[in-house]
């Protein structure tokens, strides 16, 4: 266990953390993994890009061309 803990702590970083998930209960493991993914996505604070009027106009023109 000491070697395992040493390996994990030596290789985990703030940008690339390790998550230790129990493997003996697959259903519970998937729930834990799902929650980790949701937490990380929430931390990203993703937002739609802000488009300028010129860019919106260009996209509308492209859409019209594709509708033909």
Kindly, what is the distance between the CA atoms of the first and last residues, rounded to a whole number of angstroms?
Answer: 65 Å
User: Could you tell me the radius of gyration in angstroms?
Assistant: 22 Å
* Biggest pleated sheet: none
The low-confidence runs, each spanning 5 or more residues with pLDDT under 50, are none
pLDDT averaged residue by residue: 92
**Beta fraction of the residues?**
under 5%
Q: What class would the helix/strand composition place it in? A: mainly alpha
Shape, principal axes of CA atoms: elongated
The percentage helix is: 55-70%
Please, could you describe this protein's structure?
- By secondary structure, this protein is mostly helical.
- It has three helices and no strands.
- The protein has a domain of 46 residues.
- 0% of the residues are buried.
- The mean pLDDT is 92.
Write the layout of secondary structure elements.
Layout: H1 2-11, H2 26-43, H3 53-67
What are the salient characteristics of this protein?
68 residues; mainly alpha; 3 helices; 0% strand; elongated
Short description:
The protein is an all-alpha fold. The protein has helices at about 1-10, 25-45, 55-65. The protein has a domain at about 25-68.
């Amino acid at each position: 266990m000491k070697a395992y803990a040493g390996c994990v702590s030596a290789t985990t970083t703030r940008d690339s953390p390790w998550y230790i998930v129990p493997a003996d209960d697959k259903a519970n493991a998937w729930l834990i993994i799902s929650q980790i993914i949701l937490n990380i996505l929430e931390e990203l604070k993703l937002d739609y890009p802000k488009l300028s009027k010129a860019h919106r106009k260009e996209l509308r023109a492209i859409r019209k061309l594709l509708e033909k």
